[in-house]
Write a structure and sequence with these properties.
- This protein has helices at residues 13-19, 24-31, 35-42, 50-60, 64-67, and strands at 2-4, 8-11, 68-71, 75-77.
- It is an alpha+beta fold.
- It has a single domain (2-70), classed as lambda repressor-like DNA-binding domains (434 Repressor (Amino-terminal Domain), Orthogonal Bundle), CATH 1.10.260.40.
- The strands form 2 sheets. Strands 1-4 form a two-stranded antiparallel ribbon. A two-stranded antiparallel sheet has the order 2-3.
- Keywords: DNA-binding.
């Protein structure tokens, strides 16, 4: 039986936020989301919309690919 892993977006939001010495609330307020959204995003439990991803990249003045990386899931054989 095959099990398909899900594709996901890996991010470096935490690293960028800490380098700027910002709290999760500071970043959330700056990009228009809740603190909880930043929290789950940093834990890689939430993939942001494209709009939010670009807002975050713009806030940090970097390319969106410097923060967000697409990871493709693989098909695994389940035993």
């Amino acid at each position: 039986m095959k099990k398909r892993n899900r594709d996901y977006i890996e991010n470096k939001v935490y690293e960028h936020r800490v380098l700027k010495r910002l709290s999760q609330k500071d970043l959330a307020d700056a990009v228009g989301v809740s603190k909880q959204t930043i929290y789950v995003m940093e834990k890689n439990n939430y993939s942001p919309s494209l709009i939010l991803a670009f807002r975050i990249a713009d806030f940090f003045n970097v390319d969106v690919n410097d923060i967000f990386t697409y990871k493709k899931g693989n098909d695994l054989n389940e035993k």
